[in-house]
Amino acid sequence: MKILVCISHVPDTTSKINFTEGDTKFDTAGVQYVINPNDEFGLTRAMWFKEKQGASVDVVNVGGPETEPTLRKALAIGADSAIRVNTPATDGYAVAKQLAKVVNDGGYDLVIAGRESIDYNGTMVPGMLAAMIDANFVTNCISLEVDGTSAKAVREIDGGKETVSTSLPLVIGGQKGLVEESDLRIPNMRGIMMARKKPLTVVEPTDANAETKTVSFEKPAPKGAVKLVDADNIDELVNLLHNEAKVI
Amino acid sequence: MSILVYTESENGKFKKAALEVVSYAKAVADQMGTTVTAVAVNADNAEALGDYGATKVLLVNDESLKAFNAKKYAAIIESAAKNEDSKVVVVSASADSKYVAPLVAVGLNAGYVSNVIAAPSNVSPFTVKHSAFTNKAFANTEITTDVKIVGLSNNSFGLVASEGSASVEDFSPSIPESGVTVESVDKATDKVSIADAEIVVSGGRGLKGPENWGMIEELADVLGAATACSKPVSDLGWRPHSEHVGQTGKPVASNLYIAIGISGAIQHLAGINSSKVKVVINTDPEAPFFKAADYGVVGDAFEVVPKLIEKLKAFKAANA
Lengths: 248, 320
What we know:
The complex is a heterodimer.
Chain A: E1 2-6, E2 9-11, E3 19-20, E4 25-26, E5 33-35, H1 37-53, E6 56-62, H2 68-77, E7 81-85, H3 92-106, E8 110-114, H4 125-133, E9 136-147, E10 150-157, E11 160-167, E12 170-174, H5 189-197, E13 200-203, E14 212-218, E15 227-228, H6 234-244
Parallel strand pairs in A: 1-6, 1-8, 6-7, 7-13, 8-12, 9-12
Antiparallel strand pairs in A: 2-5, 3-4, 9-10, 10-11
Helix pairs in contact in A: 2-5, 3-4
Chain B: E1 3-6, E2 9-10, E3 13-14, H1 16-32, E4 36-41, E5 56-60, H2 70-84, E6 88-91, H3 95-107, E7 111-116, E8 122-123, E9 126-132, E10 137-143, E11 148-152, E12 167-170, E13 181-187, E14 199-203, H4 214-223, E15 226-229, H5 231-235, E16 256-260, H6 266-272, E17 277-282, H7 289-292, E18 295-298, H8 301-319
Parallel strand pairs in B: 1-4, 1-6, 4-5, 5-12, 6-11, 7-11, 14-15, 14-16, 16-17, 17-18
Antiparallel strand pairs in B: 2-3, 8-9, 9-10
């Protein structure tokens, strides 16, 4: 089984989010980048398929050279090789189109992407990719088993979960549950040394026009101070929620 | 040219999010000088969408579509959009809508923006405001394609009643085979889901153990709320994963979020930030959640929560 794991290069959760150039660009100054958490759950599940079922695991990112350390980290975790499509990630559609070409050229059976990236939260790349390559698609995926060309997946739905049967070729929108937090791997020194020698191929982009364009960013208005209610005066809390906040 | 809106139902009954997307679509239609057509599958009482601004409902009645299937539902929405020559398609932020929307986007060559929180600031160029960076910021984004898809964040626009009525038409587009088959659904039917909830009651490690969740459930019950939990609680196995809210868990966009014994790690706050009103109950006045909350009680959950339940019961009885 040939697996491709899509890796988004995203600001670490604790990063301060700021904008520059008249609030039109994300301010990368001082920002630490990480593998998108939803992708990392997928990558770790892919490593399980590699170790238990002999799958090969490649990772891919659509982005400039600055994303290569994130791909190297994925190699250090255990992926076999990495591909970087050398173009900025302009919108979900354009990224999906670049990925579709990589999947078609590489003949992958299973593609695992995160259900969403924690920067733009579009929740669209895996689905668009699946539609473009006409593969089966399961998102919000919290469990995945593959046997030959058949697959069984569990999808989180509103208020519960749903078990589905499907087959390869398959695109997964993954999240926590594919593996647990405690299964995530921190690259060790050997992994990091080996990652330096693993292939990281840079491929030139195909034609793909973005369909959306972000014209400006805003930060939420600063929040007022919390209104404290005495623990002995819970009537007051009920009163505030009813009369002031009007939520009950 | 009407605005098309996909209205989800469950066991025949429209979800609240369905009424909200119709309300939203009506606002967009008014801006663009057109009308609203809804598309629904196996829904009862489809003409009720007229109360929120739809003038036409394309209703698919098909037992084989009882279980949601993204590919099949995408085909229905695409056919409806083509039928109506719609330039704007509106969907909700439910798990199913977020599953189907990217497929529709490719099928219609339409640009798609999700997590939209307000009516378009401009219809030419078509510009919408949406959350980004896991609720730490907003972005204003133009959709540059001929057909546009808007994914509306739950509870962001609200329900807006409208005069008028909707005609219901049977709709039976051709539906493709799908390579994904639902084997089983595991869903608590008597509980409010986090996605649909207007109020969410959430517990953290401060509750000391899973045996203490009775009061959380009771509080949720009084409020008609969904229950949720912090990441450590789900990692410890005290509560199921499906209740974990935060950056890597479920997003919450409720009207009221009550955090009990949750310190407020940045990942947690990111996931719940788009809730409108936040209440924190915690023994530690230095807990970061107090900086993010609107109302706070410094106190022991084991004393405060039972009191709150009692007061709310009295309030409900008085306002029934």
